[in-house]
């Protein structure tokens, strides 16, 4: 009897869990590189990992999770904003049953738009390139259909919020990785950027074909100003000009491509998020945002604390909140919070054709 009652209670709980998402939080899917990876690379043999301290020092569990931050990353904070728990990495064994309704994070540190970006991180098993991330998205949808049926699965995917962050690695870990790289001998920078945008557009169209209808696409930051590049390429502490030129060519062409896609699929299907502008604000006037510096990483070694990886033996800053950069490339949680708040409520200079809070508002009003 007692056994029967608790089985009933468990079933009721199961029904509640299944019923919840259509009533409150929408699903959230994440694609891209280390800026948005929630830990997929922990499950791979690669050197591009953030799975040991002091990564995660300010995470709720105070443990390294594979996120490239001291605490929460951009997708985590977006999850907070939509009232959802953080997305699990797609490769996590915990991602099954009702957890599928939260969405999934397919991102993998080191990847780019191109398949040959990030090859230096590969050991025996690959990083999850974006074509594979999309393949996993298809696989995920099969699991979702098995859980809730075909029509509800389609609805969950159509109503989901999607985030994709790509492009930075195609410069720092490909074209500019070494002098006279293969790609830099093959393409002038403007031609390379055109090629990247052409390939990125195909990826975004594929996402649309797979059911994505509200996709936040972040451009690259001012790549030449990351502590890693200041340490590696800058003599006078000024942002590296080649990488700045790369970002300045890439970002406007990405926005243009998103406008073209929106003309075809409907306005606001793709939302351009101007990471360059937000980061540039930090660099121009760090104090205005409560930062002590935007040119030194909190965790690292060497000039700008920007050489090599952040590890247990690195120089670690005392107050993470005073730094824009946690390690040589990736923002602190506090910087991530400001970045997301600009995506949520910023003007058209930061996010276009509409900000995320407006988009979420419109979408909520369309849901029954
Ligand atoms: C990358 O590889 C995938 C799978 O092999 C392929 O479908 C895709 O076209 C490739 N992308 C580029 C830009 O070559
Ligand atoms: C952005 O969001 C805020 C808050 O929801 C809103 O008041 C503002 O008008 C929006 N700006 C644009 C340009 O959409």
How many β-strand stretches?
Answer: 10
End-to-end span in angstroms? 40 Å
What binds here, in terms of ligands, is: 2-acetamido-2-deoxy-beta-D-glucopyranose
Average pLDDT confidence is: 91
Reading the helices and strands in chain order gives HEHEHHEHHHEHHEHEEEEHEH
CATH class descriptor name = Alpha Beta
Helical content band: 40-55%
Supply the CATH superfamily name. SGNH hydrolase
Largest sheet report? 6 strands, mixed
Named CATH architecture: 3-Layer(aba) Sandwich
Low-confidence stretches: 1-23
CATH fold category name: Rossmann fold
Which secondary structure elements does this structure contain, and how are they paired or packed?
Elements: H1 2-23, E1 28-32, H2 74-81, E2 103-105, H3 130-148, H4 150-158, E3 161-165, H5 168-175, H6 182-186, H7 189-209, E4 215-218, H8 227-233, H9 241-265, E5 270-273, H10 275-284, E6 293-297, E7 299-300, E8 315-316, E9 323-325, H11 333-345, E10 351-352, H12 356-366
Helix pairs in contact: 3-4, 7-9
The structure holds 2-acetamido-2-deoxy-beta-D-glucopyranose (2 copies).
The site of one 2-acetamido-2-deoxy-beta-D-glucopyranose (NAG) has 7 residues, from α12.
């Amino acid at each position: 009897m007692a056994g029967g009652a608790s089985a009933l209670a468990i079933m009721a709980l199961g029904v509640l869990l299944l019923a919840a998402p259509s009533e409150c939080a929408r699903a959230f899917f994440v694609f891209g590189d280390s800026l948005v990876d929630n830990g997929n690379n922990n499950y791979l043999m690669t050197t591009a990992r953030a799975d040991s301290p002091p990564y995660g020092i300010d995470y709720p569990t105070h443990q390294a999770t594979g996120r490239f931050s001291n605490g929460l990353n951009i997708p985590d904070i977006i999850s907070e904003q939509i009232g959802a728990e953080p997305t699990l990495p797609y490769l996590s064994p915990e991602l099954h049953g009702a957890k599928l309704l939260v969405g999934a994070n397919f991102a993998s540190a080191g990847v780019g738009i191109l398949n040959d970006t990030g090859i230096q991180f590969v050991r025996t098993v690959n990083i999850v390139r974006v074509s594979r991330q999309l393949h996993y998205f298809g696989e995920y949808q099969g699991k979702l259909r098995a859980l809730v049926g075909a029509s509800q699965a389609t609805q969950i995917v159509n109503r989901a919020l999607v985030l994709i962050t790509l492009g930075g690695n195609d410069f720092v870990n490909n074209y500019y990785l070494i002098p006279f790289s293969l790609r830099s001998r093959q393409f002038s920078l403007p031609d390379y950027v055109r090629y990247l945008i052409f390939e990125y557009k195909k990826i975004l169209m594929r996402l649309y074909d797979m059911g994505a209808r509200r996709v936040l696409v972040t451009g690259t930051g001012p790549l030449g100003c990351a502590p890693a590049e200041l340490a590696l390429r800058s003599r006078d502490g000024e942002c590296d000009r080649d990488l700045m030129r790369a970002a300045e060519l890439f970002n406007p062409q990405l926005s243009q491509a998103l406008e073209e896609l929106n003309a075809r699929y409907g306005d606001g299907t793709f939302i351009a998020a101007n990471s360059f502008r937000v980061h540039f604000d930090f660099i121009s006037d760090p104090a205005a945002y409560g930062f002590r510096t935007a040119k030194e990483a909190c965790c690292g070694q060497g000039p700008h604390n920007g050489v090599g990886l952040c590890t247990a033996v690195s120089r670690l800053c005392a107050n993470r909140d005073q730094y824009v950069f946690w390690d040589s490339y990736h923002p602190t949680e506090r910087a991530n919070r400001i970045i997301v708040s600009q995506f949520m409520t910023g003007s058209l200079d930061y996010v276009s054709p509409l900000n995320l809070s407006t988009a979420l508002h419109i979408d909520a009003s369309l849901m029954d």
